[in-house]
Design a protein that fits this description.
Blueprint (H helix, E strand, L loop, with lengths): L14 H14 L12 H8 L3 H13 L3 E4 L3 E4 L8 E6 L10 H16 L3 E6 L12 H8 L6 E5 L2 H8 L5 E4 L7 E4 L1 H14 L5 E4 L6 E2 L2 E2 L1 H19 L9 E2 L10 H13 L7 E4 L2 H14 L8 E7 L11 E5 L1 H16 L7 E3 L2 E3 L4
Parallel strand pairs: 3-4, 3-5, 5-6, 6-7, 7-15, 8-11, 8-12, 12-13, 13-14
Antiparallel strand pairs: 1-2, 9-10, 14-16
Helix pairs in contact: 1-3, 2-3, 4-11, 7-8, 9-10
Length: 372
Protein backbone atom coordinates (compact mmCIF):
# COMPACT_ATOMS: atom_id res chain seq x y z
CA UNK A 1 0.00 0.00 0.00
CA UNK A 2 1.33 3.40 -0.99
CA UNK A 3 1.95 6.40 1.25
CA UNK A 4 -0.56 9.22 1.02
CA UNK A 5 0.74 12.30 -0.85
CA UNK A 6 0.51 15.56 1.12
CA UNK A 7 -1.77 18.47 0.22
CA UNK A 8 -1.54 22.15 1.10
CA UNK A 9 -5.25 22.90 0.90
CA UNK A 10 -6.38 26.15 -0.72
CA UNK A 11 -9.56 27.67 0.61
CA UNK A 12 -11.04 28.79 -2.72
CA UNK A 13 -11.29 25.30 -4.26
CA UNK A 14 -13.38 22.33 -3.04
CA UNK A 15 -11.40 19.80 -1.01
CA UNK A 16 -12.51 16.82 -3.12
CA UNK A 17 -11.16 18.48 -6.25
CA UNK A 18 -7.78 19.21 -4.67
CA UNK A 19 -7.56 15.63 -3.42
CA UNK A 20 -8.45 14.32 -6.86
CA UNK A 21 -5.69 16.43 -8.46
CA UNK A 22 -3.04 15.20 -6.02
CA UNK A 23 -4.03 11.55 -6.42
CA UNK A 24 -4.18 11.94 -10.21
CA UNK A 25 -0.65 13.33 -10.22
CA UNK A 26 0.56 10.43 -8.09
CA UNK A 27 -0.86 8.00 -10.66
CA UNK A 28 0.11 9.74 -13.90
CA UNK A 29 3.63 10.54 -12.66
CA UNK A 30 4.26 6.88 -11.85
CA UNK A 31 4.60 7.46 -8.11
CA UNK A 32 1.70 5.04 -7.76
CA UNK A 33 2.50 2.37 -10.33
CA UNK A 34 0.04 0.18 -12.20
CA UNK A 35 -1.36 -2.50 -9.91
CA UNK A 36 -0.61 -0.57 -6.73
CA UNK A 37 -3.29 -0.62 -4.05
CA UNK A 38 -4.42 2.77 -2.82
CA UNK A 39 -4.71 3.57 0.89
CA UNK A 40 -8.19 2.92 2.24
CA UNK A 41 -10.85 5.60 2.04
CA UNK A 42 -10.85 5.80 5.83
CA UNK A 43 -7.06 6.24 5.96
CA UNK A 44 -7.13 9.05 3.40
CA UNK A 45 -10.06 10.75 5.16
CA UNK A 46 -8.13 10.66 8.43
CA UNK A 47 -4.91 11.87 6.78
CA UNK A 48 -6.60 14.78 5.02
CA UNK A 49 -8.88 15.51 8.00
CA UNK A 50 -11.99 15.33 5.85
CA UNK A 51 -15.01 13.08 5.44
CA UNK A 52 -15.21 9.66 3.79
CA UNK A 53 -17.77 11.18 1.40
CA UNK A 54 -15.21 13.77 0.21
CA UNK A 55 -12.65 11.04 -0.51
CA UNK A 56 -15.22 8.93 -2.36
CA UNK A 57 -16.21 11.93 -4.48
CA UNK A 58 -12.56 12.48 -5.44
CA UNK A 59 -12.13 8.81 -6.35
CA UNK A 60 -15.26 8.72 -8.52
CA UNK A 61 -13.72 10.97 -11.17
CA UNK A 62 -10.48 8.96 -11.21
CA UNK A 63 -12.51 5.79 -11.66
CA UNK A 64 -14.55 7.30 -14.51
CA UNK A 65 -11.31 8.32 -16.19
CA UNK A 66 -10.06 4.73 -16.00
CA UNK A 67 -7.15 5.48 -13.68
CA UNK A 68 -8.31 3.34 -10.76
CA UNK A 69 -10.46 0.26 -10.24
CA UNK A 70 -12.41 -0.62 -7.11
CA UNK A 71 -12.47 -4.34 -6.33
CA UNK A 72 -15.02 -5.52 -3.78
CA UNK A 73 -13.42 -6.72 -0.51
CA UNK A 74 -9.93 -6.15 -1.91
CA UNK A 75 -9.57 -2.40 -2.23
CA UNK A 76 -8.87 0.22 -4.87
CA UNK A 77 -6.06 -0.30 -7.39
CA UNK A 78 -4.21 1.75 -10.00
CA UNK A 79 -5.21 0.33 -13.37
CA UNK A 80 -2.42 1.80 -15.43
CA UNK A 81 -5.14 3.07 -17.72
CA UNK A 82 -5.08 6.45 -19.39
CA UNK A 83 -7.39 9.38 -18.79
CA UNK A 84 -10.51 8.85 -20.87
CA UNK A 85 -12.30 11.63 -22.67
CA UNK A 86 -15.77 11.75 -21.14
CA UNK A 87 -17.15 15.20 -21.95
CA UNK A 88 -16.01 17.79 -24.46
CA UNK A 89 -17.16 21.23 -25.56
CA UNK A 90 -17.74 22.12 -29.22
CA UNK A 91 -17.34 25.82 -29.93
CA UNK A 92 -18.42 27.67 -33.08
CA UNK A 93 -17.41 31.28 -33.63
CA UNK A 94 -20.44 31.87 -35.84
CA UNK A 95 -24.02 30.65 -36.13
CA UNK A 96 -23.58 27.67 -38.44
CA UNK A 97 -27.17 26.44 -38.16
CA UNK A 98 -28.64 28.90 -40.66
CA UNK A 99 -28.24 29.08 -44.41
CA UNK A 100 -27.13 26.81 -47.24
CA UNK A 101 -23.66 28.36 -47.23
CA UNK A 102 -23.10 26.79 -43.80
CA UNK A 103 -23.56 23.24 -45.08
CA UNK A 104 -19.89 22.41 -44.46
CA UNK A 105 -20.10 23.30 -40.77
CA UNK A 106 -23.48 21.64 -40.34
CA UNK A 107 -22.05 18.39 -41.72
CA UNK A 108 -18.89 18.73 -39.60
CA UNK A 109 -21.10 19.07 -36.54
CA UNK A 110 -23.06 15.98 -37.57
CA UNK A 111 -19.82 14.00 -38.03
CA UNK A 112 -18.50 15.18 -34.65
CA UNK A 113 -21.71 14.22 -32.87
CA UNK A 114 -21.71 10.79 -34.51
CA UNK A 115 -18.05 10.12 -33.68
CA UNK A 116 -18.36 11.31 -30.07
CA UNK A 117 -21.47 9.22 -29.47
CA UNK A 118 -19.64 6.17 -30.83
CA UNK A 119 -16.89 6.84 -28.27
CA UNK A 120 -19.48 7.30 -25.49
CA UNK A 121 -18.32 10.90 -25.04
CA UNK A 122 -20.85 13.52 -24.02
CA UNK A 123 -20.63 16.92 -25.65
CA UNK A 124 -21.99 20.40 -25.16
CA UNK A 125 -22.40 22.97 -27.92
CA UNK A 126 -21.52 26.67 -27.76
CA UNK A 127 -22.38 29.06 -30.62
CA UNK A 128 -20.95 32.56 -30.30
CA UNK A 129 -23.64 34.89 -31.61
CA UNK A 130 -21.98 38.06 -30.34
CA UNK A 131 -20.87 40.95 -32.55
CA UNK A 132 -17.43 40.69 -34.18
CA UNK A 133 -16.04 43.29 -31.78
CA UNK A 134 -16.96 41.12 -28.79
CA UNK A 135 -15.24 38.00 -30.16
CA UNK A 136 -11.91 39.16 -28.76
CA UNK A 137 -13.28 38.46 -25.28
CA UNK A 138 -13.89 34.95 -23.90
CA UNK A 139 -17.43 33.62 -23.96
CA UNK A 140 -18.54 33.80 -20.32
CA UNK A 141 -20.68 30.67 -20.36
CA UNK A 142 -17.83 28.60 -21.81
CA UNK A 143 -15.35 29.98 -19.27
CA UNK A 144 -17.73 29.07 -16.44
CA UNK A 145 -18.03 25.50 -17.76
CA UNK A 146 -14.23 25.24 -17.86
CA UNK A 147 -13.91 26.56 -14.32
CA UNK A 148 -16.55 24.09 -13.11
CA UNK A 149 -14.66 21.30 -14.91
CA UNK A 150 -17.73 20.29 -16.85
CA UNK A 151 -15.63 19.60 -19.95
CA UNK A 152 -12.16 18.12 -20.46
CA UNK A 153 -11.35 19.71 -23.80
CA UNK A 154 -12.66 21.96 -26.57
CA UNK A 155 -13.16 21.28 -30.28
CA UNK A 156 -13.47 24.41 -32.41
CA UNK A 157 -14.42 23.83 -36.08
CA UNK A 158 -15.19 27.53 -36.76
CA UNK A 159 -12.77 30.01 -35.21
CA UNK A 160 -10.79 33.03 -36.31
CA UNK A 161 -7.78 34.62 -34.68
CA UNK A 162 -9.56 36.46 -31.81
CA UNK A 163 -11.27 33.29 -30.56
CA UNK A 164 -8.18 31.13 -30.99
CA UNK A 165 -6.22 33.45 -28.68
CA UNK A 166 -8.53 33.20 -25.68
CA UNK A 167 -9.38 29.54 -26.32
CA UNK A 168 -5.70 28.70 -25.87
CA UNK A 169 -5.65 30.65 -22.61
CA UNK A 170 -8.36 28.45 -21.06
CA UNK A 171 -5.78 25.74 -20.43
CA UNK A 172 -7.75 22.77 -21.80
CA UNK A 173 -6.79 20.35 -24.60
CA UNK A 174 -7.84 21.82 -27.94
CA UNK A 175 -8.64 20.66 -31.45
CA UNK A 176 -8.86 23.57 -33.92
CA UNK A 177 -9.92 23.40 -37.55
CA UNK A 178 -7.66 26.27 -38.46
CA UNK A 179 -4.58 27.54 -40.29
CA UNK A 180 -3.07 28.68 -37.00
CA UNK A 181 0.50 27.51 -36.45
CA UNK A 182 -0.29 25.41 -33.38
CA UNK A 183 0.42 21.71 -32.74
CA UNK A 184 -3.26 20.83 -32.24
CA UNK A 185 -4.28 22.24 -35.63
CA UNK A 186 -6.37 20.26 -38.11
CA UNK A 187 -6.60 21.52 -41.67
CA UNK A 188 -6.85 20.49 -45.30
CA UNK A 189 -3.67 19.58 -47.16
CA UNK A 190 -4.13 22.15 -49.90
CA UNK A 191 -0.79 21.45 -51.56
CA UNK A 192 -1.45 17.74 -52.05
CA UNK A 193 -5.01 18.48 -53.14
CA UNK A 194 -3.85 20.98 -55.75
CA UNK A 195 -1.16 18.56 -56.93
CA UNK A 196 -3.84 15.93 -57.55
CA UNK A 197 -5.91 18.46 -59.50
CA UNK A 198 -3.03 19.65 -61.70
CA UNK A 199 -1.99 16.10 -62.56
CA UNK A 200 -5.57 15.34 -63.54
CA UNK A 201 -5.73 18.43 -65.77
CA UNK A 202 -2.55 17.28 -67.47
CA UNK A 203 -3.97 13.76 -67.87
CA UNK A 204 -7.00 15.25 -69.60
CA UNK A 205 -4.75 17.05 -72.09
CA UNK A 206 -4.92 20.58 -70.66
CA UNK A 207 -2.10 23.01 -71.27
CA UNK A 208 -3.68 26.03 -69.57
CA UNK A 209 -5.75 26.26 -66.38
CA UNK A 210 -7.78 28.97 -64.68
CA UNK A 211 -9.19 29.07 -61.15
CA UNK A 212 -11.86 30.67 -59.00
CA UNK A 213 -10.55 30.79 -55.44
CA UNK A 214 -11.53 32.47 -52.14
CA UNK A 215 -8.24 34.32 -51.64
CA UNK A 216 -8.13 37.71 -49.99
CA UNK A 217 -5.43 39.85 -48.46
CA UNK A 218 -7.93 41.18 -45.91
CA UNK A 219 -6.54 41.81 -42.46
CA UNK A 220 -8.04 41.97 -39.02
CA UNK A 221 -6.30 44.70 -37.00
CA UNK A 222 -2.53 44.03 -37.17
CA UNK A 223 -2.73 40.38 -38.10
CA UNK A 224 -4.00 38.27 -40.95
CA UNK A 225 -7.13 36.33 -40.09
CA UNK A 226 -7.06 32.55 -39.91
CA UNK A 227 -9.49 32.43 -42.82
CA UNK A 228 -7.31 34.58 -45.06
CA UNK A 229 -4.24 32.52 -44.10
CA UNK A 230 -6.10 29.41 -45.18
CA UNK A 231 -7.16 31.05 -48.42
CA UNK A 232 -3.59 32.12 -49.11
CA UNK A 233 -2.50 28.49 -48.76
CA UNK A 234 -5.03 27.56 -51.46
CA UNK A 235 -3.59 30.13 -53.89
CA UNK A 236 0.01 29.19 -53.11
CA UNK A 237 -0.85 25.53 -53.61
CA UNK A 238 -2.50 26.30 -56.95
CA UNK A 239 0.35 28.38 -58.39
CA UNK A 240 3.09 26.06 -57.14
CA UNK A 241 1.48 22.82 -58.32
CA UNK A 242 0.50 24.40 -61.64
CA UNK A 243 4.15 25.12 -62.38
CA UNK A 244 5.26 21.68 -61.19
CA UNK A 245 2.81 20.05 -63.62
CA UNK A 246 4.11 22.14 -66.53
CA UNK A 247 0.79 23.97 -66.96
CA UNK A 248 0.26 27.67 -67.60
CA UNK A 249 -2.25 30.31 -66.60
CA UNK A 250 -2.94 34.02 -66.96
CA UNK A 251 -3.67 36.55 -64.26
CA UNK A 252 -7.07 37.22 -65.85
CA UNK A 253 -7.97 33.53 -65.51
CA UNK A 254 -7.29 33.38 -61.76
CA UNK A 255 -10.25 35.07 -60.11
CA UNK A 256 -10.02 36.03 -56.44
CA UNK A 257 -11.95 38.55 -54.32
CA UNK A 258 -10.37 41.82 -53.21
CA UNK A 259 -11.82 41.44 -49.72
CA UNK A 260 -13.00 38.75 -47.36
CA UNK A 261 -16.39 37.49 -48.50
CA UNK A 262 -19.15 36.22 -46.28
CA UNK A 263 -20.30 32.67 -46.88
CA UNK A 264 -23.49 33.99 -48.46
CA UNK A 265 -21.50 36.02 -51.01
CA UNK A 266 -19.55 33.04 -52.33
CA UNK A 267 -22.20 31.77 -54.73
CA UNK A 268 -22.66 35.15 -56.40
CA UNK A 269 -18.88 35.56 -56.64
CA UNK A 270 -18.49 32.18 -58.35
CA UNK A 271 -21.19 33.10 -60.86
CA UNK A 272 -19.77 36.53 -61.74
CA UNK A 273 -16.17 35.39 -61.95
CA UNK A 274 -16.96 32.56 -64.33
CA UNK A 275 -18.64 35.13 -66.57
CA UNK A 276 -15.47 37.26 -66.43
CA UNK A 277 -13.33 34.31 -67.50
CA UNK A 278 -15.65 33.11 -70.25
CA UNK A 279 -16.12 36.47 -71.96
CA UNK A 280 -12.38 36.67 -72.71
CA UNK A 281 -11.26 35.99 -76.26
CA UNK A 282 -8.79 33.33 -75.15
CA UNK A 283 -10.01 30.86 -72.57
CA UNK A 284 -8.24 28.24 -70.40
CA UNK A 285 -8.45 24.53 -71.21
CA UNK A 286 -9.35 23.68 -67.62
CA UNK A 287 -10.93 25.38 -64.62
CA UNK A 288 -10.56 24.66 -60.89
CA UNK A 289 -13.18 26.02 -58.47
CA UNK A 290 -12.68 25.91 -54.68
CA UNK A 291 -14.64 25.92 -52.33
CA UNK A 292 -18.00 24.27 -52.94
CA UNK A 293 -19.86 27.45 -51.96
CA UNK A 294 -18.37 29.09 -55.08
CA UNK A 295 -18.90 25.97 -57.17
CA UNK A 296 -22.68 26.41 -57.16
CA UNK A 297 -22.55 29.86 -58.73
CA UNK A 298 -19.89 28.80 -61.23
CA UNK A 299 -22.06 25.90 -62.42
CA UNK A 300 -24.99 28.27 -62.94
CA UNK A 301 -22.76 30.52 -65.05
CA UNK A 302 -21.59 27.59 -67.19
CA UNK A 303 -25.12 26.39 -67.81
CA UNK A 304 -26.27 29.87 -68.81
CA UNK A 305 -23.30 30.24 -71.18
CA UNK A 306 -23.99 26.85 -72.77
CA UNK A 307 -20.48 25.58 -72.04
CA UNK A 308 -19.89 22.04 -73.30
CA UNK A 309 -17.91 20.08 -70.69
CA UNK A 310 -15.40 18.55 -71.29
CA UNK A 311 -15.19 19.62 -74.96
CA UNK A 312 -14.96 23.36 -74.26
CA UNK A 313 -13.66 23.17 -70.72
CA UNK A 314 -12.32 20.52 -68.33
CA UNK A 315 -13.63 20.96 -64.80
CA UNK A 316 -12.30 20.07 -61.35
CA UNK A 317 -14.55 21.19 -58.51
CA UNK A 318 -14.27 21.01 -54.74
CA UNK A 319 -16.90 19.35 -52.57
CA UNK A 320 -17.24 18.10 -49.01
CA UNK A 321 -18.59 14.59 -48.59
CA UNK A 322 -22.06 14.75 -47.10
CA UNK A 323 -22.73 18.28 -48.42
CA UNK A 324 -24.66 17.93 -51.70
CA UNK A 325 -23.72 20.01 -54.74
CA UNK A 326 -26.02 19.70 -57.75
CA UNK A 327 -23.91 19.50 -60.90
CA UNK A 328 -25.30 18.17 -64.21
CA UNK A 329 -21.88 18.64 -65.87
CA UNK A 330 -19.24 15.86 -66.18
CA UNK A 331 -16.70 17.28 -63.72
CA UNK A 332 -13.92 15.73 -61.66
CA UNK A 333 -14.11 16.36 -57.92
CA UNK A 334 -11.65 17.14 -55.15
CA UNK A 335 -13.48 15.59 -52.20
CA UNK A 336 -12.83 16.23 -48.51
CA UNK A 337 -13.90 13.50 -46.08
CA UNK A 338 -15.48 15.32 -43.15
CA UNK A 339 -15.54 12.17 -41.01
CA UNK A 340 -11.73 12.24 -41.18
CA UNK A 341 -11.76 15.90 -40.14
CA UNK A 342 -14.02 15.13 -37.17
CA UNK A 343 -11.91 12.15 -36.08
CA UNK A 344 -8.73 14.24 -36.31
CA UNK A 345 -10.22 17.02 -34.15
CA UNK A 346 -11.28 14.52 -31.47
CA UNK A 347 -7.90 12.79 -31.68
CA UNK A 348 -6.05 16.03 -31.00
CA UNK A 349 -7.99 16.51 -27.75
CA UNK A 350 -7.55 12.87 -26.69
CA UNK A 351 -3.78 12.93 -27.23
CA UNK A 352 -3.33 16.09 -25.17
CA UNK A 353 -5.54 14.69 -22.42
CA UNK A 354 -3.22 11.73 -21.82
CA UNK A 355 -0.03 13.73 -22.33
CA UNK A 356 0.93 12.31 -25.72
CA UNK A 357 2.77 14.62 -28.14
CA UNK A 358 0.63 16.30 -30.78
CA UNK A 359 1.39 17.77 -34.17
CA UNK A 360 -0.74 19.35 -36.93
CA UNK A 361 -2.96 16.95 -38.86
CA UNK A 362 -3.53 17.69 -42.55
CA UNK A 363 -6.35 15.80 -44.26
CA UNK A 364 -5.67 15.11 -47.94
CA UNK A 365 -8.60 15.45 -50.38
CA UNK A 366 -9.28 12.58 -52.76
CA UNK A 367 -9.82 12.96 -56.49
CA UNK A 368 -12.87 11.49 -58.18
CA UNK A 369 -12.14 11.63 -61.89
CA UNK A 370 -14.34 11.77 -64.96
CA UNK A 371 -14.31 8.37 -66.72
CA UNK A 372 -12.38 8.38 -69.99
Amino acid sequence: MKSIPPIAFKGHEPAYRQIEQVLRTAITSGEWASGSRLPTVQAMASNYQTSVFTIQTALETLEKDGLIERVRRRGTFVTGGRTKLRQVGIFYGTDFLRGRAMGFYQEINHCLAKALEARDVKYRLWIDGRSDEDHVQPLDDLVEAVNRREIQGIIAPVVDFPESVWLQQLGLPLGLLSSASVPYQVNFDYVKGMALAMEEFRRQGCQTVGAILPVSAATHSSYETETSQSNRQILDGFTGCLADAGLKTRNSWVRVPDRMLTALEHEEFGYRQFQEIWKQAEKPDGLLVWPDTMVRGSITGMLEAGVSVPRDLKLILHCNEGVPVLCPLPASWLKVNLEQIAAALIGQVERQLVGDPVQPVLVVPTLETVPR
